[in-house]
Amino acid sequence: MKKPVKIITGILGFIILVPGLQKFTEPYKTFVFQQLSLSGIPFAEVLQYFVKFSQIGVGSVLIFLAYKGNTLNKSLKNKLFYLGNFAIITMMLVATYVHLHPNVPAHIVPIKPPVIPISYIVLVSINLYLNSKQAINN
Predict the structure, then answer these.
(1) What whole-number percentage of the chain has pLDDT above 90?
(2) Burial level of 61, CB count in 10 A (0-12/13-18/19+)?
(3) CA dist., res. 108 & res. 125, Å (int)
(4) How far is the C-alpha of 61 from the C-alpha of 45, rounded, in Å?
(5) What is each CA distance from 98 to 6, 76, 80, 106, 134, in whole angstroms?
(6) How do residues 50-94 score in pLDDT, each as one tens digit?
(7) In a 3-state reduction of DSSP, which class is residue 66?
(8) Which of these, 89, 80, 87, lies nearest to 61 by C-alpha position?
(9) Do 75 and 22 touch, CB atoms closer than 8 A?
């Protein structure tokens, strides 16, 4: 993994991990449940924990890859890299849906227009592009 990909991977890991941890504190703990239930996503009671733990897990994996990824064999490193990046895209697509849902009031989402989730998707896209560009050059 070249330096630009390592940097973006580390940033993605951090910006996914911290909100995942934050979602265990009030008022964010309540906001996550309200966002899921008001947007009509089924099993909101269970999925709120899935959201929190998946953000923490994906963030931790990406931070590990950024700092110690070169110690792993190439196959495992690539699988974790793509799994983490595509997991973020999936999470952010759901977040975009929640942000845009008319039943979810602005006061329970960080910013009502889905600026944050779309920014994350753009950052992941750049990361995937740079990684594929490096793979072609190697």
Answers:
(1) 85
(2) buried
(3) 27
(4) 25
(5) 30, 33, 27, 11, 35
(6) 999 999 999 999 999 999 988 999 999 999 999 999 999 999 999
(7) helix
(8) 80
(9) no
